[in-house]
Amino acid sequence: MLDILTCKLLRAIGAKIGRGSSLPGMICRKIWPGSLKTLKLPEKVIAVTGSNGKTSTVAMICEIAEKAGLRVVCNREGSNQIEGITTLLLSSADPRTRKVDADVVILESDERFCQYTFKEVVPSHMVITNLFRDQLTRNGHREFVRGELRKGIPDSTRLILNANEPLSCAFGNGRKGTSYYGVSAPELMEEPGIIHAYDDGAYCPICGGKMEYSYRISGHVGAFSCGKCGYASPKADHEVTGTEDGKLIIDGKWEVAPQILNEAFAQNIIAAYTAAVEAIGIDPQKAAELIDGIELDNGRVVEFDLNGHPGRFMLCKHENSMAYNGAISTALRDPSEEVTVVFIVDRLSRKYVANDMSWLWDVDFNRFSDPKVKKVILSGGFAHDAAARMLVGGVQEEKLIIEPDLDRMMTAVAERSEGTIYVMTCFTDQYKFLDRLKKYGREAAK
Ligand SMILES: [Zn+2]
Known about the structure:
Elements: H1 2-17, H2 23-31, E1 44-49, H3 54-67, E2 72-74, H4 82-91, E3 104-108, H5 114-120, E4 125-128, H6 136-139, H7 142-150, E5 158-162, H8 166-169, E6 179-183, E7 211-218, E8 221-226, E9 238-244, E10 247-250, E11 254-256, H9 263-280, H10 284-291, E12 301-306, E13 309-316, H11 322-332, E14 339-344, E15 373-379, H12 383-392, E16 400-403, H13 406-416, E17 420-426, H14 430-439
Parallel strand pairs: 1-3, 1-4, 2-3, 4-5, 5-6, 6-9, 13-17, 14-15, 14-17, 15-16
Antiparallel strand pairs: 7-8, 9-10, 10-11, 12-13
Helix pairs in contact: 1-2, 2-4, 3-9, 9-10
Zinc ion is lined by residues 204, 206-207, 209, 226, 228-229, 231.
């Protein structure tokens, strides 16, 4: 009882000083190491992990569940390691009964920390979104992450897997009760002829044989099959089958308006929909209605206007290709004839110092050679690295404006843009643009 009361108290105090998410759990774990295991959880505990899309997928599952009238406990603000999850669950429990007061618990978890958290909290379901190269200097290679994640999947947990991502999808091989989701919409498929600097889908993760793709959604995500061992994209239980008038079609019948129309967001939506239907048990039509038009209030997209040019700021993640590839697709799909892209790489991380720029080669920047893209403005301390990547990728030199200085970048954006402006950068660098946008007196419209 004392552990729960202490955690609630520490969380309340911590909330006032901005240390309310991990620290209370960390302290309680030191004093009462076994307390997380003895909590009484609801039957439905859904874990979400993977390199990309965790936060958005969790936010969407939470919203669907709450709109369906369920009581939800969820770490939607992040804090996805064991200390944060301890804080969340202890402080949501009744001190006398030790019951967590919810119909469903939804937990975002760091891939490498599942092995610690899910020894103490056994999820009924686990959504694994994908395994990508992601912050190489912190995480190591994705095969290493797969090995670490494997230690964190309890035997009794039912998996919900991405049928189009070969490495994480292999967790379902021979495992009963697994559900799969996918994207087969032709409009969201990669245009032919993209040359990837790396191809993480070239070889089978099970036998090492050569992998074939009948289509690709983005990079190594697509409909794959191994000619040697027969490992192939399983049939998806739920999928995005098409698009119409800017909407996604789910399972050939439900129309759902996405906040952003691109392959990355489509994968998050179908992951959340599948979790809602298969894990929570919400009726498919109802789940589609509840997910329709969902707007995540996480600042990932900011609409603005600059010198008469409509603009879209799209929050991506450095050291990872998926969000950038999605943002590039959105820019190329813009209804206007002309597009200017602004790409800012100034600082890689708030937490550690690393100048590894290998990830620039994972992103399909060569797509900026498309005639629709009129200008590419590059800024920040790594602007020249970005320019080198684009030139090797075949982007026309005359399109590039290289302005490492951020103030001069802003002047270039205001004065030299053509058509709709798409700004892409990471949360570590976002205010370097957004603050300057405000200074220009043209506050974001949304
Ligand atoms: Zn194989």
